[in-house]
């Protein structure tokens, strides 16, 4: 009778809401951070600064995998049960690691790292070169503001549909970049999601070991590539066309090398009822 109704938990709702709040808080950092750098840095230094920003952003998941590897070695009820009474090991399929510990450590670290942002000034002194380049634009903006003062009109609030069509979807360069990013991240996330499972199933590695291997082998080269790309763009002073050609060449080379994964693999396990018949 006790097996007829399995116990259910609604803790996943708290995890969902927590991740939603975390995403809302983390989202402005990248677009606003890049805009902040673009506005108050010299033009030739912006690629390096943006590359540093993305490189540090890639180090976050790397340390996250390492932290996940450490937490997976700890039993889920650590601090609440006697660890000496636990008879299973992390290699056992019934083992559940302390997945919740990473949220506490990551949340506390994020809170501490957010404090310095409160002391950043809203505006910095712009470089002289940037001021010269933006003189004409400033004159146009001042002229427009003066005209509005002389002939004030009630400005109607713009609808989201108009903003999306005019500013975002109407910009062909931005729309193309958005589609390209969606395709790239879709492939990258799939690879990052199933590769640890593949290591666990085919090579008999524990969850902790798989996370450690993924964190050390996949993410550092990506961060190094982003940083080197920023240095190359600064050295050769690439414009939008040069940067596009450079990005296309590197992406094509990356996909060509990734194609070699089709020639590396292991045979599936023999599982009765799945890969072979019961007979």
Could you walk me through the main structural features you see in this protein, from its secondary elements to its overall organization?
It is found in: Cell membrane; Membrane. InterPro entries: MFS_trans_sf (IPR036259), OATP (IPR004156). The chain crosses the membrane at residues 46-67, 97-120, 173-192, 212-233, 245-264. Keywords: Disulfide bond, Ion transport, Membrane, Transmembrane, Transmembrane helix, Transport. Pfam families: OATP. Helix content is 65%, strand content 0%. The protein has 279 residues and is an all-alpha fold. Helix 3 (46-72) runs antiparallel to helix 10 (219-236). It is globular and about 70 Å long. The two termini are 34 Å apart.
Helical stretch tally: 11
Question: What proportion of the residues form beta strands (DSSP E)?
Answer: under 5%
SSE string, helix = H, strand = E? HHHHHHHHHHH
User: Any low-confidence stretches, pLDDT <50, length ≥5?
Assistant: 149-155
Q: Tell me about the biggest sheet?
A: none
Q: For the residues shown, what is the average pLDDT?
A: 77
Structure summary, number of beta strands: 0
- The gyration radius over C-alpha positions equals 26 Å
What is the first-to-last residue Cα distance? 34 Å
What structural category characterises the helix and strand content?
Answer: mainly alpha
What is the helical fraction, as a range of percent?
55-70%
Basic shape: globular
């Amino acid at each position: 009778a006790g097996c007829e109704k399995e116990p259910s938990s609604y803790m996943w709702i708290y995890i969902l809401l927590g991740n939603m709040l975390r995403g809302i808080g983390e989202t402005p950092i990248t677009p606003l951070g890049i805009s902040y750098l673009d506005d108050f840095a010299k033009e030739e230094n912006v690629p390096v600064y943006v590359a540093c920003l993305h490189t540090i952003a890639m180090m976050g998941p790397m340390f996250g995998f390492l932290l996940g590897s450490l937490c997976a070695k700890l039993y889920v009820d650590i601090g609440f049960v006697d660890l000496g009474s636990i008879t299973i090991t992390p290699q056992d399929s019934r083992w559940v690691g302390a997945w919740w510990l990473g949220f506490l450590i990551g949340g506390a670290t994020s809170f501490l790292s957010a404090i310095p942002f409160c002391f950043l000034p809203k505006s910095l002194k712009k470089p002289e070169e940037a001021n010269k380049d933006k003189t004409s634009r400033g004159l146009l903006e001042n002229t427009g503001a003066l005209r509005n003062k002389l002939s004030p009109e009630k400005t109607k609030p713009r609808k989201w549909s108009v903003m999306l069509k005019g500013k975002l979807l109407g910009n062909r360069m931005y729309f193309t970049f958005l589609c390209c990013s969606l395709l790239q991240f879709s492939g990258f996330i799939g690879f990052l999601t199933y590769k640890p499972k593949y290591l666990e199933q085919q090579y008999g590695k524990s969850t902790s070991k798989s996370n450690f291997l993924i964190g050390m082998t996949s993410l550092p080269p990506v961060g190094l590539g982003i940083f080197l790309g920023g240095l190359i763009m600064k050295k050769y002073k690439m414009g939008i066309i040069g940067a596009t050609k450079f990005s296309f060449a590197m992406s094509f080379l990356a996909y060509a090398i990734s194609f070699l994964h089709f020639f590396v693999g292991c045979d599936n396990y023999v599982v009765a009822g799945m890969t072979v018949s019961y007979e």
